[in-house]
Amino acid sequence: MMPLSLRRMIVICAAVCCASVGAQKPPESPPAGPPQIATERGTYHIAWLTMEGAALGEKWQKTDVPVFLGLRDGRAVVAWFCHRDLTGQKRMWLDESTLMLEGAALRGQLKGRAQLGADRGDRARGDTRDFTVSIDAAVTGEAITGTYTVRLTDHQGREEAASAGKIAGRFIDGARAAKEYGLREGADWPGFYGAGGALRGPDCGARMVESLAQARPVWRSEEWVLTSYGNAPDMRYADRAGYTGCGGGSSSPVVWGGMVFQYYYRPSPQAPFLEKTYGGITLDKRREDARTLFAREIEGRWYMELFRASADDVIVAMDAATGGTIWKAVFPQRTSNIQTHKMRWLFPVPLVHDGVVYAPGSSGRLYALEAKTGRLLWEYPDAAPPAYLARSADTPRAEVDAPSPVVAGGVLAFAARNQLVGLDRRTGAVLWKNSEAAGPLHRWTSAGRDWLIAQRIEMRKNAAGRNEPCAVLHKIDPASGKSVWKTDVEFRHYSYLPLIEGDFVVGYDFGNWDANVVSGGRALAYRLTEEKAVKAWEVPLPRGTDSYGLTCADGRVYVFAEQEMLCIELAGGKVVARLEGVGGARTQVAFSADGRVFLQPEGRHGTQSFAMVAARQDQLRLLGTGEAPAGTHRIAGLWFPPHTHTTAYANQPIVYPVVDGRIFIRGGDGVYCYDLRQRP
């Protein structure tokens, strides 16, 4: 059972109408086999309230708590308690709602669980409370005024904290939200790499805030998206699932046509349970644990979902102005139920092209759906596959070799299961296969013609007779799938790189690696020509830890080391600016838009934080003030967004689209939107 998500849906593919579901009951799971594609019916509006003096702060101190509400047909189906004391690994699950907007009155209750401390084991039992928020308010135009009460109890119903006070805020209907928060036409981040191949957003001319502390929360998605690997449950500490829910992979959101698209997977309700689980523990023992480890029945059910033998692929389309679900596609039992924390592979991310969503799944499948309606166009490799069932308790890997598909020369290229496949994008028919070039994939346009550029890692014998990896770039004809040339390159880095910008392919070499400390690293660029890739330049890099962050914009390459940022001229390799005091470490990721460069300094262990640098005319300026908390990357102005966090683990980070002055962040329980535009 997932947290509350009320649905009125039209099941397109099966032509079955599903009635709306009460707040206390989740939607029925779709049957195994045919895909279930549902379009939301009815209205979706949002509201922001402030509860004055609510007892939800640290150690129950009373504090003003902003609350976001998503209202489907007048009923509150989303509640985001948006406060710094409820961020990171803390979370408040909404399990039941009777809060309704009827006429000019907003009345009812929100009930759920507040997990306010540790996120695993018996410690979490003591840290999880049950909450009830009662609201009685009047709505006059956009203004909301009234009163609230909050009651927090332990799992035995004993009251631990209570408060009451005034509530005030603003009701924002769909039309007003579209006017205030809608994205301009053509403002898209359609795939993993953004508007191109360099982790860069579109140029929208947005005037952004001078500090991320000024970012304004806009919405949390109506869809509950399962947490990512950075803080997902693991079979070594499986009981974490009772407090976080199961993991759903590390795909990134993408943005196209005023919509946000998110892929994730979920344990399939139709799948059987594994009879023997990790460590040889029997299913009967797991069921006993579900009864004894957890104080609440819902937590035991979440825990048991870890042991399903397969998972469903899920693609959700959301309104970029409100976060409301537009459509949702579920493909039952198409993939493996990967439940782990330490996942070191590539992860599938949708591509939206010419009005079609091409969404890879974790097991190497691919789905094509109309972006506006969710109508299924085709499914690769087959439309009626047998259910994917794990045969053992071993953790499988995601069978993906490039984050997003690519369209080049009218052909859809897709890398999975150690093959690069060319498909007819209208029908899904296979045009060709290439088993030598499955890897990170880009489109390169030269003299008006499209080519595919792919990087493949080959294992070769060195002088000592030992196998070592060698990176090879391939130029591929999208019409035939044949490699026109291949060139050995000196890149040695995480699997989602290199980037492509114009005629240049950019990446780095780790240099020397000793216990995650990187020294002697180099930023590298190769110029693409008709005959081969030619090394254009290399730049020595400062010390790093585990990884470097790269993005390209405006003819510049921005590189983040451990404690320093470099701005490098793309054409010639000249270092034109440096900035000390900003950098990252494990699975850090850089991305850029509208003259700003963003850094998530650590993208591996479940905590989300962001730094922002103004980058104009070869001048770098770190924005924001104030010391970061102890134990984090000590970057002035480091921003910890006020929602439940999550990250990827290794090899491929989650990327956060910045489009038209908005940033879209996949959190631990949904997608979040923040407004970075300066106020008029």
Describe it:
- Helices cover 5% and strands 44% of the residues.
- The protein is mainly beta.
- The protein has a domain of 129 residues: Lipocalin (Beta Barrel), CATH 2.40.128.
- Strand 22 and strand 23 form a beta hairpin.
- The longest helix has 10 residues.
- The chain is globular.
- The two termini are 43 Å apart.
- 55% of the residues are buried.
Question: Would you spell out the secondary-structure blueprint of this structure?
Answer:
Elements: E1 9-11, E2 16-18, E3 36-40, E4 44-54, E5 63-72, E6 75-81, E7 91-97, E8 100-102, E9 105-115, H1 121-127, E10 128-140, E11 143-153, E12 159-172, H2 174-181, E13 216-220, H3 241-244, E14 254-256, E15 259-267, H4 283-292, H5 297-304, E16 311-319, E17 325-335, E18 351-353, E19 356-360, E20 366-370, E21 376-380, E22 406-408, E23 411-416, E24 419-424, E25 430-434, E26 441-446, E27 449-461, E28 467-476, E29 483-489, E30 499-501, E31 504-509, E32 512-514, E33 517-519, E34 522-528, E35 533-540, E36 544-545, E37 549-553, E38 556-560, E39 564-569, E40 575-580, E41 589-593, E42 596-600, E43 611-616, E44 619-623, E45 658-659, E46 662-666, E47 671-675
Antiparallel strand pairs: 1-2, 1-3, 3-17, 4-5, 4-12, 5-6, 7-9, 8-9, 9-10, 10-11, 11-12, 13-47, 14-15, 15-16, 16-17, 18-19, 19-20, 20-21, 22-23, 23-24, 24-25, 26-27, 27-28, 28-29, 30-31, 31-34, 32-33, 33-36, 34-35, 37-38, 38-39, 39-40, 41-42, 42-43, 43-44, 45-46, 46-47
Helix pairs in contact: 4-5
